[in-house]
Amino acid sequence: MRDNDTIETVSRRKFITCTGGATLSLPWLESFADTSKSKTENPAQRLAFFYLPNGITRRGFFPGESDRPLPPFAGQNNVWRFEGKTVPPGSHQLTLTPTLAPLDKMRKKISVITGMDRTFQHGTDSHAQCASCFLTSVAPYEVKNSAYPLTRTLDHVAADSIGTTTPYSTLELSCNDHKNNIESIYFDNMSWYGTGHVAPSMRDPRKVYDRLFGTQSHTRFRNITDLALGNASQLQKRLSAEDRQKFGEYLESIRTIETRMDRIEKMKSELAEAKIKRPAEHLPRNEYIHLMGDLLVTALQNGLTNVGTLMLGPERWTTPTNWEGILDKPYSHHAMTHSIGNHLEHLLLLDRFHVSAFARLLERMDQIKEINGTTLLDNTIFTLGAGMGDGTTHQYNDLPLVVGGGGGGKLKMGKHVHCKRGTPLANLWLTQLKALGIKRDNYADSTGTVSEIQA
Predict the structure, then answer these.
(1) Most distant CA pair in the chain: distance in Å?
(2) Measured between alpha carbons, how far is 55 from 57 in angstroms, rounded to an integer?
(3) In a 3-state reduction of DSSP, which class is residue 202?
(4) For 152-195, how does the pLDDT look when each residue is reduced to its tens digit (9 = 90+)?
(5) CB 371 within 8 A of CB 28
């Protein structure tokens, strides 16, 4: 327990100053909280997105479709409407399919949303509007003189309200470090300030880390956790046992990220010395995705941002990717979806890995304690989704969506919600804005909210 007679309230700024001025954001610590406020103040609300490119394999993701026929490839600019097995609209018991099985530990803090649709605005390739318009705030054909129904996206709309006090109003991350820019920016970005104005994503974990935590490339500043720990020792005795553990866990999480990045850097150097030319990618794919996810969670945890997006890859690019630890050799994700009969098992493995990477972040967030006995996950709306329902048929209906977290108690989890045909994806975005306390009557082409998950 804290001794309120000997421990004064210390601001976050003062605490960081006492740790030697290291540019390191810290988690919420009860020992330095103002107890007169902590019981009444609410934790910050966060919003994050985990985006899957090129759709998913339906028979692995959607309940009741394990034996569905493999669909034939639809042309590049065609969009099919595939209707899965009949599921009545409404709330159902949550059934985790093989692709969704990694979410089992978090089943009480997620909801699977199916049946939501988007409208494809003819005039571009079918992939071009997937990521770019996934979070858009306008209805199809609403933007004049543009082939894209695209303007300010949901992350920035939300950040206008919940991102005004953080160092970064939004954080855009991408796991696409391909150097061959074979497509336009619309295939490779999901965050936009407005029509034609992309919010560039960061793709290099080292640069992301340096930007967020202010580390220097010079050797003596390389391990910022050693610097912070050394100068923070005078404060350790003022922390409660619980806060000492929390502070240690936080610094260890930073150290783990640094260690992983050092491992990747070492691997890249060894490969360069051996003159081994690897096709297109130079990072182990599973390490890369896990690391970028950890950076996003750490930024949310420590108040660097309240809003973030993580795009796992680009739409449509045919460059083979190394899927170390997942697939046996380089493959093009997009190309595999167009030949599903030859790559069904590969696609199912890839989809399951993506979901497991999302589940891993949810589990980590649920272990991070915040004010009033809540967790970071409880105070976050974290959505996994894709802008295309199936990469083979290019369908824009029945999108794959998983919503994690509780939105500060404003959302109900632990169910499968199947929406009636024609329900726009924008209904989910409007629901999330309302859960964040942002007053909106509508969003893009919304027709209402998803009442089944509203608390």
Answers:
(1) 72
(2) 7
(3) strand
(4) 999 999 999 999 988 889 999 999 987 777 789 999 999 999 99
(5) yes
From residue 431, give the alpha-carbon distance in Å to each of 47, 280, 424: 12, 40, 12
What are the E-state strand segments in 102-149? 110-114
Question: What is the C-alpha to C-alpha distance for residues 159 and 307, in angstroms, rounded to an integer?
Answer: 6
User: What whole-number percentage of the chain has pLDDT above 70?
Assistant: 75
Q: What is the pLDDT of residues 412-435, one digit of tens each?
A: 999 999 999 999 999 999 999 999
CA-atom Rg of the chain in angstroms: 22
Residues 6+ apart with CB under 8 A from 201: 172, 173, 174, 189, 191, 309, 311
Q: Give the pair of three-digit tokens for residue 111.
A: 């909801």
Q: For 147, which DSSP code?
A: S
Q: What is the DSSP string of 40-106?
A: TPPPPPEEEEEEPTT---HHHHSTT-TTPPPPPPPPTT-------S---SEEE-----TTTGGGGGG
Q: What is the 3-state secondary structure (H, E, C) of 409-433?
A: CCECCCEEEECCCCCECHHHHHHHH
Cross-strand partners of 310: 50, 173
Partner residues linked to 202 by β-bridges: 173
In three state form, how does the secondary structure of 41-58 look?
A: CCCCCEEEEEECCCCCCH
**Strand pairing partners for 197?**
194
* Domain annotation for the chain: domains and CATH numbers: 42-214+280-453 (3.40.720.10)
